[in-house]
Amino acid sequence: MPLSLRLPPDLEARLDALAERTGRTKTWYVREAIAEYLADLEDASEAALVAEQVALGKMKVHSLEDAERRLGLAD
Question: Which of 2, 19, 39, 44 is the most exposed place for a label (fewest CB within 10 A)?
């Protein structure tokens, strides 16, 4: 699906320079940046949900030491 956006002149200049220097297209960089940012947002959202479940006592947590002991990894 086509998407149009306007960038501030300084950001567009940086993107132009990067694309020129690397031989990649501006579209490639914008697509990569959006994908990375969305992944970060999805991770943060999942972490917030888990933290809420822990805070409400709906999810049990274990210490690293306990996990190592249960897995037979403790010294």
Answer: 2
